[in-house]
Amino acid sequence: MRTISRRSLVAAVAAVVAVGLAACGSEPEKKEPAAGASKGLAELSAPPALPAKPVTLNVIDGGGDLQLSQPAIEEFAKRNPKLVRKVTFSKSTGPELAGKVQAGQRAGKLQYNVVVAGYGEIAAGAQQDLWQKLLPNFEKTLGDVESKYQDGALKMYRLIDGDALTTYYNPNGPLLEYNPGKVSAPPKTPAELLAWAKANPKKFTYARPANSGPGRTFLQGLPYILGDSNSRDPDKGWAKTWAFLKSLDKYIDHYPSATGVTMDELTSGAVNMIASTTGWDVNPRALGVVPKEFKIQAFDGFTFVADAHYVAIPRGVPAGEQAVILELMKFMLTPKAQAYAYDKGYFYPGPAMKDVPLSLAPAESQKVIKEFTRPEYDALFKRVLVEPQLDQDKIVYMFDRWDREVGGSKVKE
């Protein structure tokens, strides 16, 4: 991640079929595999054979994942010169990712053979049938992955139905992050937040959910707190949540297009409070982007809405390349590779797999985590229920409806 990176709001048709759906008024239909995108080896019983010559791994990141995954990918390449000739890294905004991959599939010329991204981006691609099915198809190569996942990571993995592997995980949020010099009594309930926003107009914001982990977590956490009829159905079960978001919108001047911008605005004093998560609290303070003394507040009686990152293979990738990527995936789930996820707190805690203590992380990561994490996190992780994010079709619907009915017209670059 680059904590203060700014991602553009997407207006292209490719983005509409992806996560953002900024200009679309209806839920996308699940498409057949794109022309030129063969099903690869999904139906073969035997795993693909490793290639005779090393291959190039062309990795595209759709949501800040490289901050976590790049060290592990580079170490895999260094360890396996007979498998990997070189690695290229590209970045995309979340809403653009599926469109970029699909364009290559339709043209019969894939630009990328490895995708690393967050849940929203992977879910949008799964709705378009863009990813090669990994499990159970390649179970002989990948082994028993499920038994090694932490409970929350396993829940997030099952949302993707074998189309990708969960690589990183955190309980996440929603949390409020604020400047204690400006906010003496932070809100502890949504009603208190609404009252605070009314009394302090233009001083609270959150980033566009389609391109922001804290933004989408804020939305998904509200139904549990407000007591909506069905916390997992944003169409028919979120009457209280949509009403609350529209009421809150009256006092929000704009919605940044990416999370990093909210951090900039909190630091500059443009706003005094934002939606945040554990990682977005720890990492910007560790990097000096947000003052160390800024604080967080959890809602009373809240439920953690977990977040996860994934690795996927686009449909149409040649067999030899698939074989190498499967080996990469196995390596990314080893304890040593998982320990890189502690990073500088970007996705705190980070590892998706069981039994990956902080002591395995690089010394710099250990130092940062010990200095910038908060003691209240350990207590929250132990006592607060963790739920997975919405199912694939539901989260895409949520993004679309928020863009249409709540804040799409007020998104600011």
Q: Can you give the mean pLDDT?
A: 89
Radius of gyration of CA atoms, rounded to a whole number: 20 Å
Largest pleated sheet: 7 strands, mixed
The coarse silhouette is globular
Tell me the fraction of residues in β-strands, as a range.
5-15%
Question: Gap between N and C termini, in Å?
Answer: 18 Å
Alpha-beta classification: alpha/beta
- According to DSSP, the number of beta strands is 13
Counting DSSP H or I runs of 4 or more residues, the number of helices is: 16
The portion of residues assigned to helices is 25-40%
H/E series, N to C?
HEHEHEHHHEEHEHHEHEHEEHHEHHEHE
Q: Please mark out the parts with pLDDT under 50 across 5 or more consecutive residues, or reply none.
A: 1-45
